[in-house]
Structures are given as structure tokens and as C-alpha cells.
Amino acid sequence: MDFNGFPRLSGHQLLSLDGPDAAAFAHAQFSSDVTALPVQHWQWSAWLSAKGRTIAVFQLIRVDEERILLVLADGDADAIASQLQRFVFRRKVKIAVRDDRIVAGSFTAPEAASDAAIAVHGETLELDVGSDALPRTLRIAPLDGATAADDAGFVLAWRQSDLRYGVPRLAADQREQWTPQQLGLDRLNGYSVKKGCYPGQEIVARTHFLGKAKRALQLLRVGDGTPSGAQVQQNGAAIGAVASVAGDLALAVLPLEIASDPLSVDGVDAVHLPLLDGLAR
């Protein structure tokens, strides 16, 4: 597997958990059911605060029995590694930022990976991160010998494609603002309400089983340059806020039931767009 036609996704960072207790540690910290994930498969996951608010959304890869790899599209790997280290205690797990590897992508179907199953070719990992509606492939390889070019336009297009799939891309000011339900992580199978305790689990489960989720993620076309956190207004009243933005696309957390009257963000008309399915893992 080479990197021809695979621009580098600058901003993506990697974090590895290595050791006999890697999977158990990840299972206890993150929102997805890690121990049920087969080796050489990946899933969406999140790290939550004790109050059930989302700190980070990422792809979690179970590379082998003693290695978990996190793909952090919104960076902040150093801070997350430092915070996770506080919970290691006596577990046999080493947490490390993997700046010796690069992440690159392509709007093409994978050569060998399929759905949640990854493909391994030497030290290169290939992930299927798309669907028939919008094929995408992610490749991770050692920095030495990999020659993926930087392309700012491609990075923006990739971020927009994430939003089209309903993958929240959280800027620093949007971390610890939203519950997994508000960010639509159920669409990605990004959290479990059946596994044991993890930070924020009680709030997530209570919201799920008592049906208290009143807001959900929706895709909007907005004015280019709209900031994250901007208010979504309807009939002169704020009804929600922008959680993620990429160019003229935004994911906004809005009430489940809203009137059909026009929406606006920062004084510019906002248009509802359909979310793409097919990225649940």
C-alpha cells in the first residue's frame, strides 16, 4: 500500500495504549465496548467527563491483543495522554503520543479494509471510513518512508465529509459542552449503555433509558466563516448552537421537535441538509 493520491491529514494525531491491560484500560475509560471489539477491527468511541460531556471523539483501533490505537482527528493528543495517565494506577499499560506515524486519506474505496475490519500491510494500517454513498479510505504508516503531501484544501474537504456523515469535529471551545446523545454518537455506535462503568456512564445511561434526550445533531449549510458556538435562531429566538463547522457546513445541536420556519446563523439563512448514513462501526 503506497500513499500516491493520499494527502496527509494534518491535524490528525495518534495515541497508543500498549501492554497486557491496554484493552481493559480503554474499556474502563472510553464510551464504546472495547473488550467486545475483535483484533484488527475499529469502532467509534469517545472520552467523557464525569458529568457525561464529550471531551473527544475518535476512532479506536484494536491493532492486536496488547495495542489500542486512537485516531484523534481534532488533535490534543498530548493533553489527552497526560489526563489519561492519571487513571493508569497499577494497570500494565503505556500511553504514548505516536508522532512517529502519519495519517493520510483518500476519497476512494479501500483496497482491502472493509467496514470495521482493518487491513494490515507491513506497518501500514488501512481503514474503511466511508460508504457506497461517499467512499473514503484512511491509511496510517510510519513517518519514515511515507511521503504523503500536505493539502489544505483536501483537509477541509475531509472535515466537511466528516460533518456530512454526522461525525462531530470538536474545536477546543466545544469540548465538554455536549453529551454523546446530543452529538448523535448513537448513529455511529459510539457509546454503549450495556457495558460496565466508565466516566459519565451513569448520565449517558439515564438519558438513554429515561428518554430524556431533547436535542440532536443536524447538518446545516451556513455562511462561510461561521464560528463554532454560534447561535442558531428561529423567529428571532436562539434555539440551538453550532457544535462543529467546516467551511459552509455546520453540525448544530437543535431541539428534536422544531417548527418548519426558516433558521439563521449569524444573520445568514441556514439550510437543513440530510446526514449520510453508513459510517456506524
Structure description:
With 281 residues, this protein is α+β, with helices and mostly antiparallel strands. It has two domains: 13-172, Alpha-Beta Plaits (2-Layer Sandwich); 173-273, Beta Barrel (Elongation Factor Tu (Ef-tu), domain 3), CATH 2.40.30. Helices cover 14% and strands 33% of the residues. It is built from four helices and 15 strands. It has a six-stranded antiparallel beta barrel with strand order 10-13-12-11-14-15. It has a five-stranded antiparallel β-sheet with strand order 2-3-4-1-5, covered by helices on one side. A hairpin with an 8-residue loop joins strand 8 (124-128) and strand 9. The two termini are 23 Å apart. The model has no long low-confidence stretch (mean pLDDT 94).
The portion of residues assigned to helices is: 10-25%
What would the principal axes of the Cα set say about the shape? globular
* Number of beta-strand segments: 15
CATH topology name of the largest domain: Alpha-Beta Plaits
CATH architecture of the largest domain: 2-Layer Sandwich
- The tally of helices reads 4
